[in-house]
Amino acid sequence: MDFGYEGKVAVITGSSKGIGRQTAEEMLKLGAKVMLVARGEEELAAAKESLGAHGEVDYVVQDVTGDDAGENIINAVIERFGRLDVLVNNAGGAFAESFEEVEVNDWQGDLDLKVLSAVKMSKAALPHLKENGGAILNLTAVAGKNPGAGTLPTSVSRSAGLAMTKAMSKDLGRYGIRVNAVCIGLIRSDQVEKMWKAEAPEMSWEEFATTGREDIPLGRVGETEEAANVITFLCSELASYITGAAVNIDGGASASL
């Protein structure tokens, strides 16, 4: 099955580890060239060395919240690879508290990281994506569709990301650019592994992933590869008629459609 990645170039933010890094690996295996982006050079260098076995990969050390971050990153991609076909906006984290506990400055920081960084990246990438009819994929979370108590400000930022995805898909479809989102549930990641080691270090990963998961219909924490596979598909030519979609990757846990 041809995913259409051969000769294509992808840039993935937040890709030194976790879902971003695994997505890079899947795309490399299918023939893409990939630019990794994160803040820590040591982790990026290690990722490049490991992923280099699968294809042509490089990295940019950049905080995506910086004023010139989008231009800096995209310029580096074009200088290194000469084109751009896929943008995956993966940078972000989970900052969740009750409304009463969240400080005003925390709201701005969360929006800068999860929404405005994707805006900057997408704006900088747009001229190049217009040439190739490429794809943009925004990572959000199921809390963006189904906000609950103690999920602020992250659920609001994720909801904004979903609205942005849908509106962008309407605007950019005329150029053959597809814009989709994935809504991540409980997936094995750096953050979830830290939770595992802090809460249940005596358990194996398999035990932690399946113990007390009655709220997840599939009964377990999702694996990193399972999220990366969906992202890779949505950015591929096999998904050529999918745009404006927001796909849950949560084992069925979300109450939303």
From TrEMBL:
Reaction catalysed by this enzyme: (S)-acetoin + NAD(+) = diacetyl + NADH + H(+)
Task of the protein: Catalyzes the irreversible reduction of 2,3-butanediol to (S)-acetoin in the presence of NADH.
MF annotations from Gene Ontology: diacetyl reductase ((S)-acetoin forming) (NAD+) activity
PANTHER family according to UniProt: 3-OXOACYL-(ACYL-CARRIER-PROTEIN) REDUCTASE, NADPH-DEPENDENT REDUCTASE BACG
Domain of life: Bacteria
EC number(s) from the headed UniProt entry: 1.1.1.304
Similarity comment: Belongs to the short-chain dehydrogenases/reductases (SDR) family.
UniProt entry keywords in alphabetical sequence: Oxidoreductase
Name of protein: Diacetyl reductase [(S)-acetoin forming]
All copies of domain Ketoreductase, residue ranges: 8-175
SMART domains membership: PKS_KR
Any Gene Ontology biological process: bile acid metabolic process
